[in-house]
Amino acid sequence: MNKIIKQKIRTIPNWPKQGVMYRDVTTLFKDRIGFKMVIDTLFDRYRESSIDSVVGIESRGFIVGSAIAERLGVGFVPIRKSGKLPAETIGEEYELEYGRDKIEIHKDAISEKDTVLLVDDLIATGGTALAACSLLERLKAQISECVFIVDLPTLGGSKKLSDKGFGVFSLVSFDGE
Amino acid sequence: MNKIIKQKIRTIPNWPKQGVMYRDVTTLFKDRIGFKMVIDTLFDRYRESSIDSVVGIESRGFIVGSAIAERLGVGFVPIRKSGKLPAETIGEEYELEYGRDKIEIHKDAISEKDTVLLVDDLIATGGTALAACSLLERLKAQISECVFIVDLPTLGGSKKLSDKGFGVFSLVSFDGE
Predict the structure, then answer these.
(1) Interface pTM, i.e. ipTM
(2) Would the N or C end of chain B have less CB density within 10 A of its end CB?
């Protein structure tokens, strides 16, 4: 099944810049079979995990995260770029290739000891995901697992998360092919 | 039921600037009951409408749009800010209070004559929604309806859409209270 999911992801060479093989999940999401396969697979994996909320990272993480939250019958919490959330937030900075960026979560988005699923479409170097895990830990959430549709293992992000003790699950992996 | 949905939306006065009453739907989404009510209501309304895809506007429109697409068993298509979509796009500019902005959709995201639901969290002056409708018309989609959780009717956007012949449906309305 994951082979079918993988085939529905479009690869765009040299985007956003020369040398990058961009994995475009929009072709997976627009396909009713592909989108259903993704959500069915995640639902089967987490239906017994007593998830309290799904947390999605802006903005493609909203697409996967919201759909799996709906299927699990739980609430959805966004982690957004700095300055986008209107109420009291906590923030975490992380390194980019050039410079730094910051993500935020509402302070009251998660209750202490809630079990959450952290969702994004793709993990590359893992900077954003690690910052998101820090935010969730600062809110004293239990992170059930960090879920991605695509892992780019050569960029090391999923290993970094595992090394820090976070569970990681990805549906498909691209190894530079 | 819509009264309960409305109560779960948080109002933040003077954000992002003095004089604005910001309607924060994150408190609705994080609430499992509220989130389910939203999706149940939309599902009941559109289950018989032969929707081919749900189109969501970046980025809170992704949250509602993806969940209703999942429930309807159809694909999800994002409309994004300029420069974010990696393959061939068409774009549409629209007026902001100061200056202009641009949204884009992948050219191959929708097939001709597909029936689509256009989804965003909120309609205010309607600039983005009208631009999104233009994009969908240029792709020759049939717009079943434009769906919002919140309408701010005093800002005129929903009337503008209706006047142009687009169906509009909102779950709740805030009239400056």
Answers:
(1) 0.97
(2) C
